[in-house]
Design goal:
The protein has ten helices and 17 strands. The chain is of the alpha+beta class and about 350 residues long. Strands 7, 8, 9, 10 and 15 form a five-stranded antiparallel β-sheet that branches. A four-stranded antiparallel β-sheet has the order 1-2-6-3, covered by helices on one side. A two-stranded antiparallel sheet has the order 4-5. The chain is globular, with a radius of gyration of 22 Å. The protein binds flavin mononucleotide (FMN). The site of flavin mononucleotide has 20 residues, from α9.
């Protein structure tokens, strides 16, 4: 499976192409649009979210709502497509791609960096993930993304108060979200090559989300503080359930393979780097001290990042699923899956 996205933050729109989707999958556009809406929600989001009402159009790969096995192309048009007239940006924001991108590509306007580095591109990611979720649902897999903490606060009230405090201080705040997947069959991913390990692929996918700076699988960094006897998940068998565990510290993955338990991964998002009280920076033309640029921006986007997290996890699981069960037609894939599940149950 190959996936590409394209589009600038204030360009005409965002495009996603999924090459390698099997034929025969019923794609519900309303579901894709609901996922796009979820990405735009959450307390602490900026004004852009009030301007854009993301909806996807499907340009190719579908007939009568069913995939053809040809590349699926989705387009999300931008309402604010002012890229040609927007002002020049000259003071790079610490924590953003601005300075490194400017130097790397030889630009004189930071806008040429931030238009693509902006997390607006995650709308395209979410549209791909929505297709992944539609696929995974056919096999009874479900993905959610609870927010675990905001600025260290773990209760709902605490999290809301922390975001309000950030708003009042003209500051920003990050946090941790979890992505949980239920219904995952044993056997996705493999230990036979490093790049086929499911934990490695999920970590890489989560780390690809702008602003994500830490990823844990299951107990994650908590493993480092305990004895082996306290953390590994004991194995049991019952006729009803087959093999099962009394705990799930492994987060559903052992040896780079799904073990049949829920997949549980966590990601930490840093505070948004565009600050209304900007940090020290420089004017890139004069090299003189200047305050960092202020763009229209979120105060906290952890909840939305969780929705993007669901999307990239769905994408990876769809990929490894197709690698295991075949990739051409849904009916062949279902037959292979059912045959496999029967063998595992036996
Ligand atoms: C859903 C989402 C929304 C974001 N919104 C903003 C934003 O409004 N302003 C901003 O400066 N960064 C925002 N970010 C984070 C930046 O895109 C990110 O910090 C930047 O691209 C630099 O990449 P890095 O943090 O991975 O190094 C957002 C990230 C996500 C996932």
């Amino acid at each position: 499976m190959r996936i590409l996205t394209a589009g600038e933050s204030h360009g005409k729109g965002l495009i996603a192409i999924i090459d390698g989707l099997p034929a025969g999958l019923k794609v519900n556009l309303d579901f894709i649009n609901t996922e796009l809406k979820r990405r735009q929600m959450g307390f602490g989001r900026g004004k852009r979210m009030q301007i854009e009402h993301d909806t996807a159009q499907i340009l190719s790969g579908l007939k009568a709502g069913i995939t053809l096995g040809s590349p699926l192309t989705m387009l999300i048009e931008n309402k604010d497509c002012s890229i040609e007239t927007l002002h020049k940006v000259v003071a790079p924001r610490p924590g953003h791609a601005d300075l490194a991108g400017l130097l790397k590509y030889g630009f004189s306007d930071i806008r040429d960096v931030l238009e693509r580095a902006s997390a607006r591109s995650t709308a395209a990611t979410v549209s791909v993930g929505a297709v992944g979720k539609i696929f995974l649902r056919e096999f009874r897999m479900n993905i959610t993304s609870p927010v675990i903490s905001i600025g260290g606060e773990v209760t709902h009230e605490g999290k809301v108060a922390k975001i309000s405090e950030a708003i009042n201080r003209k500051d920003t705040v990050g946090g941790i979200f979890e992505v949980r997947v239920s219904g995952v069959p044993v056997g996705l991913g493999s230990y036979v090559q490093p790049d086929r390990r499911l934990d490695a692929r999920l970590s890489g996918a989560l780390m690809s989300i702008p602003g994500i700076k830490g990823v844990e699988i299951g107990l994650g960094f908590g493993y480092a503080q305990r004895f082996g006897s306290e953390v590994h998940d004991p194995i049991y068998y019952s006729k009803n359930k087959g093999t099962y565990r009394s705990t799930n510290n492994a987060g559903g993955i052992e040896g780079g393979i799904s073990n049949g338990e829920d997949i549980v991964v966590r990601a930490c998002m840093k505070p948004i780097s565009t600050l209304l009280n900007p940090l020290d920076s420089i004017n890139i033309a004069s090299r003189k001290p200047a305050k960092a640029a202020i763009e229209r921006s979120d105060i906290c986007a952890v909840e939305s990042a969780g929705v993007v997290g669901e999307a990239v996890v769905a994408q990876v699981l769809m990929e490894v699923f197709l690698e295991k069960f075949g990739a051409d037609s849904m009916s062949d894939i279902k037959a292979a899956y059912n045959h496999y599940i029967k063998r595992i149950k036996k």
